[in-house]
Amino acid sequence: MTFKNVAGMIVAIVGMVIYSWAMELEKQSIIAAKALNSVKHSLTEEEFELLKEGVETTQSKDVELGRTKD
Predict the structure, then answer these.
(1) Cα separation, 47 vs 42, whole angstroms
(2) Can you give the pTM of this predicted structure?
């Protein structure tokens, strides 16, 4: 094999990895949007705003250790 062939294969593999990663991100954003949309329709506007406010002000916790992250 020549260097040109090996370089072409490496470029193809890197391209496939990047494409796969981008598709996974797109799937996750679609799923999150659908989940948010279904929650938004099942709650009143006031309940949704209170929930959103609570999430924004709550400190994230380390679920495994049960402690608040610094």
Answers:
(1) 10
(2) 0.46
Those residues whose C-beta lies under 8 Å from the C-beta of residue 43, and which sit 6 or more positions away, are 51
C-alpha 43/C-alpha 25 separation (Å) is: 27
Please name the residue that has the structure tokens 């309940």.
47
Query: What's the confidence (pLDDT) of residue 14?
Result: 96
Instruction: Report the first-to-last Cα separation within the chain, whole angstroms.
Output: 53
The structure tokens listed for 57 are 């002000």
Q: Which residues pair with 68 in a beta bridge?
A: 61
60 touches 69 (CB < 8 A): yes
Q: Phi, psi at residue 2, to the nearest 5°?
A: -95, 165
Which of 68, 67, 48, 46 shows the shortest CA–CA distance to 59? 68
Q: Are 68 and 61 in contact (CB under 8 A)?
A: yes
3-state secondary structure of 67: strand
